[in-house]
């Protein structure tokens, strides 16, 4: 196994480095210090052909100009905060509204646009990179100086493990996730409509017109959101369900997980034979089928369009700080935020 570090580009006078994590089977994860972005993951199909299975770009400029959070760590708080407002211990806070009236994914120039420090990890059974960042008190309206780490580790079982940690000197909010868009066809040969998804989840969160949770947890039973038994994504995406229509004819919903660290999220592409198993200690996964992925740009030669990738964002529940029935994503002084998600790539 080996780690190769190279210069990837530059932004605001800061050098962005790439890190290629390759195991003994040729499985590779490429990531950069800008936003901890996973730029590519090369994994074999059922015939042993190594191909990239995530959406990404080959330049800093493309990420800064076009990226809808491709492959990045988003924070301080993943997802949307209603009206960009919350209270902590009776004190009101206002955050920038960067999606209509919502505060989205930590706001403008958040963790996904920052250049992180990086430390290479080389052990006998795993290799990786530990990315580190200091988010200053008041950044994008959040209280507290927060020290954040995101560690990417690869082993010889074709597994990528992401561990997030954070500490603060003042009570604040933290809810991190990775925003990779997966497409198991390999090199974006086709969209993800025929991908099959299986979730160990009996409930999803209903969304309002601004994609904010209403607070209602809805049973998936007999609805397009039922992925308890594996089914093609298009069965849900092409349905006439009001919730599917509301988010741009697709899925952009949090699913509450029944189990943790037990193959609770499984994505498959039958043509390539590739299978992705995701295990986490998080409460939920936000499934986003790239319903709003449109624009006058290309993704490594493929025109941007709907349904080119699927995001499986393991995280705490969105807007939890404003929802009395949700566990709020509060980090206090003396506590450590610590969560792990593992991605295992295999074939049928």
TrEMBL record:
<protein>
    <recommendedName>
        <fullName>Aldose 1-epimerase</fullName>
        <ecNumber>5.1.3.3</ecNumber>
    </recommendedName>
</protein>
<dbReference type="GO" id="GO:0004034">
    <property type="term" value="F:aldose 1-epimerase activity"/>
</dbReference>
<dbReference type="GO" id="GO:0030246">
    <property type="term" value="F:carbohydrate binding"/>
</dbReference>
<keyword id="KW-0413">Isomerase</keyword>
<dbReference type="InterPro" id="IPR015443">
    <property type="entry name" value="Aldose_1-epimerase"/>
</dbReference>
<keyword id="KW-0119">Carbohydrate metabolism</keyword>
<dbReference type="InterPro" id="IPR014718">
    <property type="entry name" value="GH-type_carb-bd"/>
</dbReference>
<dbReference type="InterPro" id="IPR011013">
    <property type="entry name" value="Gal_mutarotase_sf_dom"/>
</dbReference>
<dbReference type="Pfam" id="PF01263">
    <property type="entry name" value="Aldose_epim"/>
</dbReference>
<comment type="pathway">
    <text>Carbohydrate metabolism; hexose metabolism.</text>
</comment>
<dbReference type="InterPro" id="IPR047215">
    <property type="entry name" value="Galactose_mutarotase-like"/>
</dbReference>
<dbReference type="GO" id="GO:0005737">
    <property type="term" value="C:cytoplasm"/>
</dbReference>
<comment type="similarity">
    <text>Belongs to the aldose epimerase family.</text>
</comment>
<feature type="binding site">
    <location>
        <position position="252"/>
    </location>
    <ligand>
        <name>beta-D-galactose</name>
    </ligand>
</feature>
<feature type="active site" description="Proton acceptor">
    <location>
        <position position="313"/>
    </location>
</feature>
<dbReference type="InterPro" id="IPR008183">
    <property type="entry name" value="Aldose_1/G6P_1-epimerase"/>
</dbReference>
<feature type="binding site">
    <location>
        <begin position="179"/>
        <end position="181"/>
    </location>
    <ligand>
        <name>beta-D-galactose</name>
    </ligand>
</feature>
<dbReference type="GO" id="GO:0033499">
    <property type="term" value="P:galactose catabolic process via UDP-galactose, Leloir pathway"/>
</dbReference>
<dbReference type="InterPro" id="IPR018052">
    <property type="entry name" value="Ald1_epimerase_CS"/>
</dbReference>
<dbReference type="GO" id="GO:0006006">
    <property type="term" value="P:glucose metabolic process"/>
</dbReference>
<feature type="active site" description="Proton donor">
    <location>
        <position position="179"/>
    </location>
</feature>
